[in-house]
Write a structure and sequence with these properties.
binds pyridoxal-5'-phosphate, 13 helices, 37% helix, alpha/beta, seven-stranded mixed sheet, 18% strand
């Protein structure tokens, strides 16, 4: 056990960490394995949050740990823009192969999701020579100036942080009649000839695990194609097998011009990538893209180990199986508990919408209460949604049946408590 208690570390934290950075729990983690987190006082938690969609292959996956150790012993940094190295090109080769689209591709590595979204926008603007970007209601793309502008939710992400970046236009997400609101936007908001890209999460994450209706993305991509607009898929939360396919956009057979990956790409090492059509990615002038740490060798080695785990340890099959088990249990709860509205999401990216009253108003307090009850009983679970009323599951695919069952029993108990 650690020499400090949670209480002592929280006291220290309050003196040295900005109040602007909040945490879901007050438990300081000392170690983690698979789907289990262990805090400094030795208390264990089943992890249904995966560090917000980062630990798809599980905490401390042996292949990832070995790859990190091995690379760290060789060298930890040169800066790819100074001295390139093998792990980055090997990982880029794999990403170009596994991302949708049977056409030549290129990749660029960045440090985090927001930085990758920023770079996708830079590339799209450079290639099209157009300024505007279309995004969606309920979207989340990050916390930097541009990506916070692209993000939909005001509090906590945008409140007080303006003025925002120009040339970002927002439309409703997933309107049934074939992306009508995009056509509408061309009349009411922005000339299509000024639009560089439409940036969409195939399954909206922070916005509440929202899946658009059948045919939506095909229509959206067609409108983009017809107007010389790039279609960019932000797979930062929905990618790396989370929805049962490597990338969620594959569910609709759409091949994006650019695809953005981060989070579970390197199992917790800070790594993100933009992967896209060669002629678009190569259009940018030399030195136009990059950064000191982008594609760090240790992070790329971890990324390669993650892909190896997918190839050798049946991660996609595990994801599909997890999604099916969750769907079955959630469908049962939906019948039993009035508080549950829609079952949201796709595959193992699944959430429960909490609603109350005749008009099915968002029940954010109840969602929070369930999460708090779960935490008390040893289950970490996260809440999301524009109204804060969606309890979401992002558990590692390697979670054992026993751990999953225990976690779901705790959730069920919490649902009974608030019903
Ligand atoms: C869909 C999506 N895009 C972008 C981001 C931003 O990624 P990061 O926090 O690594 O900057 C997130 C993070 O939650 C996300 O879910």
């Amino acid at each position: 056990m650690n020499q400090f208690t949670n209480e002592q570390l929280n006291q220290l934290r309050s003196k040295v960490i900005s109040e602007g950075v909040a945490s879901v729990t007050t438990n300081f983690i000392e170690s983690a394995q698979g789907a289990i987190l262990r805090d400094v006082e030795g208390r264990e938690y089943i992890d249904f949050g995966g560090g917000i969609a980062v630990m798809n292959v599980g905490h401390s996956h042996p292949k990832v740990v070995a790859a990190i150790k091995n690379q760290a012993e060789k060298f930890t940094h040169t800066c790819f823009m100074v001295n390139p190295y093998e792990p980055a090109v090997k990982l880029a080769q794999k990403l170009c192969r596994i991302t949708p689209g049977d056409f030549p591709k290129r990749a660029v590595f960045l440090n985090c999701g927001a930085e990758a979204v920023e770079n996708a926008v830079k590339i799209a603007r450079y290639y099209t020579k157009r300024p505007a970007i279309i995004v969606f209601e309920n979207a989340y793309h990050g916390r930097t100036l541009l990506t916070m502008t692209m993000t939909s939710k005001v509090k906590p992400y945008k409140f007080g942080f303006g003025p925002f970046a120009p040339e970002i236009y927002r439309i409703p997400f997933g309107d049934v009649a074939g992306a009508d609101s995009l056509h509408d936007a061309f009349i009411k908001h922005v000339n299509p000839e000024a639009v560089a890209a439409v940036v969409a999460e195939p399954v909206q994450g922070e916005g509440g695990f929202i899946v658009p209706p059948a045919g939506y993305f095909q229509e959206l991509a067609k409108i983009c194609r017809d107007n010389g607009i790039l279609f960019v898929s932000d797979e930062i939360q929905s990618g790396m097998g989370r929805t049962g396919k490597m990338f969620a956009i594959e569910h609709w057979g759409v091949e994006p011009d650019l695809i953005i990956v981060a989070k579970s790409l390197a199992a917790g090492m800070p790594l993100a990538a933009v992967v896209g059509k060669q002629e678009i990615m190569d259009a940018v002038h030399a030195w136009g893209l990059g950064g000191t740490y982008g594609g760090n060798p240790v992070a790329c080695a971890a990324g390669l180990a993650v892909l190896e785990a997918f190839e050798e340890d049946n991660m996609l099959e595990k994801s599909v199986a997890l999604g099916e088990k969750l769907q079955t249990r959630f469908a049962k709860w939906q019948k039993e508990f009035d508080i549950i509205g829609e079952i949201r999401g796709l595959g193992a990216m699944l959430g429960l919408e909490f609603v109350k009253g005749e008009n099915k108003e968002p029940a954010a307090d109840e969602a929070r209460q369930v999460a708090a009850h779960c935490l008390e009983k040893g289950l970490l679970i996260l809440v999301c949604g524009s109204y804060g009323n969606v309890v979401r599951i992002l558990a590692p695919f390697v979670i054992t049946d026993e751990q999953l069952e225990k976690g779901l029993s705790i959730m069920e108990e919490a649902l009974k408590e608030i019903s």
